[in-house]
Design a protein that fits this description.
By secondary structure, this protein is α/β, with parallel strands linked by helices. Strand 3, helix 5 and strand 4 form a beta-alpha-beta unit. Helix 1 packs across helix 2, helix 1 crosses helix 4 and helix 5 crosses helix 9. The longest helix is centred in the N-terminal third of the chain and has 28 residues.
């Protein structure tokens, strides 16, 4: 049995007339009759009572088969539509890795825009450090990541989507909080709260380099993995922190942010993926990322 047999049968069943069904199908009437006879022979039942050579009536078996044929064609059309939409990146799943830093600026805008355009794509979000994202991409656990170069794996595709300066987060009653801009050397005696180097060597090394420009090495009093935790420790007067400027969007009572007098290294955020693991959904997601980050 082939798909055309179902379509031919439905046409005859709806028209109850071979000639009209043949016209509707844009085929000659004799081949149509032959196809219906082949279908009946394969099923081993009569589907039509032949009143005349051309006019027919459905048998009881034919009525049952008509309903099933409708369902089969509807299921087929649904499968075709689903397949096409998946191929266009309109349906599927996308697993996204991200650092806590990108949640204060770009990522919410990107996710909102993508969901507006592709509401049926399931987004699975996982907060990971840059190093963890590299491994997750390699293992196929995520499709795309938002990380901070430099990356150790040079086989990954990456595109910079944001650069931001470093600023100082401090308790609001700190003596230096009265200044609009702060010199690095004035922080030489401060306790620093920092991100662990093994989880984010890029950011850690840039902060240390900035301190060295002020002729000192930072006194690391506390380490914290999450940016919000670092700011929380600042609000507890455990020390000061040098953080990317987007952290200003994290409003915390009694914490203020100040610019530095020196030109600071720029902290990059990059979207990272593996070209060999490209899918239609990932392609569409990367297009949204590019538009939002322009």
């Amino acid at each position: 049995m082939e798909l055309r047999h179902l379509r031919y049968f439905i046409a005859v069943a709806e028209e109850l007339h071979f000639s009209r069904a043949a016209e509707r199908l844009h085929i000659a009437q004799p081949p149509l009759s032959q196809q219906i006879q082949q279908l009946e022979a394969e099923l081993g039942v009569e589907l039509f009572h032949r009143k005349t050579k051309r006019q027919v009536q459905l048998t009881e078996a034919g009525q049952v088969f008509l309903q099933e044929a409708y369902q089969l064609l509807a299921q087929l059309e649904k499968a075709i539509e689903l397949t096409q939409r998946t191929g266009r990146g309109e349906k599927g799943q996308l697993r996204i890795g991200f650092t806590s830093l990108v949640t204060y600026d770009l990522l919410p805008v990107i996710l909102r825009r993508f969901r507006e355009q592709f509401p049926e794509v399931e987004l699975v979000l996982q907060e990971l450090t840059t190093a963890q994202q590299e491994q997750a991409l390699k293992d196929g656990h995520i499709h795309v990541g938002f990380a901070h170069p430099p990356l150790e794996d040079n086989t990954l595709n990456q595109e910079c989507i944001q650069q931001e300066a470093l600023i100082v987060a401090m308790f609001e009653t700190h003596p230096l909080a009265e200044q609009k801009r702060i010199l690095m050397r004035s922080l030489s005696n401060e306790n620093f709260i920092m991100f662990p180097r093994h989880l984010g060597p890029g950011l850690y090394d840039q902060i240390v380099s900035l301190c060295q420009q002020g002729n000192f090495s930072p006194k690391v009093a506390q380490e914290a993995i999450q940016m919000q935790t670092i700011i929380g420790l600042v609000s507890a007067e455990m020390g000061i922190a040098i953080v990317p400027s987007s952290l200003q969007n994290l409003q915390r009572s009694e914490v203020v942010y100040r610019s530095l007098e020196e030109n600071t290294p720029l902290i990059e955020t990059a979207v990272v993926w593996r070209q060999e693991d490209m899918t239609p959904v990932l392609h569409e997601f990367l297009q949204v990322v590019k538009i939002v980050s322009r």
